[in-house]
Structure formats: structure tokens, C-alpha cells
Amino acid sequence: MKPTNPTLLSLFCGCGGLDLGFEQVGFTTGLAYDQRADAVSSWNRNRNFKSARTWDVRQLSLDALDLHYGCEFLPAGVIGGPPCQGFSLANRRGHRDDPRNDLAYVFVKLALDLHKRQPLNFVVIENVPAVVGKRGGSLIDDIRNELNSAEFDVRQIVLDAAHYGVPQRRKRFFLIATNNHTRTRPWMPPKRSTKNFTVRDAIFNLPEPQFYNGKQTPLSDVHQNHWCMVPKSKKFQTGELIEGYKEKRSFKTLSWDEPSYTVSYGNREVHIHPAGKRRLSVFEALLLQGFPSSFCLDGTLSSQITQVSEAVPPPLARAVAESVAASFQTPSATSDWPSA
To answer: Residue 234 has what pLDDT?
Structure first.
């Protein structure tokens, strides 16, 4: 039996942080795709429905979607975060001609192909804020024009996860397009959380993690992902890594009573635990991203670090999902949706 809740297509889904936020609001992810097998395995592991596939999004077509879904695929919306390495300021070699930037156009083309078959209610694209800067070039303007031509109302906004129940400062760009003919009210930005969460709120009471033992086998009884690299630098013994230390990028140390720095770890630059004796475990990073404590990642330690770094914090995704859903509800209802 196919789901009766509003169904989504998720592209470049990763381990599913964005999707999880939408699912928490009542959406069902009908199909999800990513090229990284470990991320897809993690996505499927944490859901009762196994909708994710390891696939090159550039090779998708309407026929392929129908085949994978088991019947004609008619989602209510398309969501996803096209790879952002070409835009990210963290990538010092990034530029507007990076071939990965073209994947955003692939995303929109597939969404509009679905829209021509049966109108979508919305499209949501998530990315780094720099996508609207020099590195992004005209990409966002091009996408806005295409969606406007398909009679979507297109808005864009940069949101900080720390304002939406996440113990982390993390700014993300969202492009939100709602169908002019099926929405019941204009899209409005999500309301900020009334509470600011800190590192202490997320990880203070956790026991020490296990250290990587040369084998890709998690050892902790606390959580499968509660493991980290063995601390080798002398800095971990000298006492110089105090709370809030940030003089060297590779040794940024968290403060208990502040939100975390952005959970985005490149070249093993995992942030330092506030105690200053080791780097964070993968499980601690998941909690700082706002994932449920039951959420588990598959793959090697390195792969898990990449997955958690690239994920959208689920509470931020949920806030966006709630704001999208509100555009399709009547004032007296909580679940009015146009058929899709």
C-alpha cells in the first residue's frame, strides 16, 4: 500500500537529516537518492520504509522513478541539497565553474519534469549561504526564473540552526518555491525557537567514547557511533585546549555553555570536546546536529564523520517543513492538502 501522507522526492538525501525534519511534520519520503552507499544505508536503517537508493541523480528519469516506486510517482514536493563543495567558503579552491554546481540544475529539471506530469505543491532546495555569492554566479537567479515560469512563488532565506532548537551555530540557505495555484496562503519564514540550546544541553552527561582501534568496529555500549580518533597531538596533554579555544582551525574547542561551532568537519578537523582531551565522537556530533539519540550511522569512522558533517540539522528541517505545510493549510485545519 502506498502512503497517504503527502509524498516527497528527496534528491542528494545523504543520511536523511532534511527528510527526517519533513517526516516529523507528517510527510512521507516516497523515494530518496544519493550516490554514497554508506549514507543510503544509514538513511534506510533509521526508517521503517526503505525508500533510499544509491543512484546517480543525473541518470534519473520519470520512467526510472516510476519503476523504483512501483507505480506512477506523483509526489507533493521535491526537496534536497545539491552538493555544495563548489560554493562553500570552506573549500578554498571553490569557484562558480565547479562541475558539481551543475547538479542544482539537474535537481530543478527533474522537479519540473514531475511538475509537468502533475503539479507539485512545492520545491525546497537547501545549500550553503555562499550559493548566492560570487561562487554561485547566476545559479540561484536561473533557478528562480525557471520556477517562476512554472508558476511557483519563489522565496529565499538564510537560517541559523541555533535559532531553531539546535545546539549549534550553522547558517544554511533555503530556496522555497510554493505553487501559486495550490497553496492557500503565502509562504512565511519559520518562527524562531524560544529556547537557545548549548553544548551542555546536548552532550554533558555522556560517558567517554571508545577510541578507533584500527578496525571499523564500533565498541561503545552507549551508542554505535560513540567513537573517535585516538588523540595524538601533544596539545591534548598541555592544557592549552581550553573551552572556547579557536586560535587554530584544526583545534577549535567547544564551550559548554555556548552553541557548538558549525558541525562541518573537513580533513579530520573534528572539533575538540570542551574538556580539551580529545575530539568529539560521531555520536556527540549527531546530538549537536539535533538528531534523535536513536539515530545511527553506517560505514567507516571517516564515512560517518562525512555523513554527519553534510547533514541538515533535523530541527531546522522541521521548522522549514512546518512553514511549508502552513502554506497549504486553511486557518481551521492542520492537515488540508491538495491531492498530489
So the answer is: 94
The C-alpha atoms of residue 177 and residue 182 are separated, in whole angstroms, by: 12
* 35: in domain: yes
**What is the pTM (predicted TM-score) of this model?**
0.91
Structural domain includes residue 61: yes
CATH number of domain containing 43:
3.40.50.150
In terms of residue numbers, what domain contains 150? 7-195+312-326
29, β-bridge pairs? 8
Average pLDDT along the chain, 340 residues, taken 10 residues at a time: 71 98 97 98 96 97 98 97 66 50 92 97 96 77 96 98 98 97 96 95 96 75 93 93 90 97 85 97 98 96 95 98 91 50
Q: How many domains does the chain have?
A: 1
| Domain annotation covers residue 169 | yes
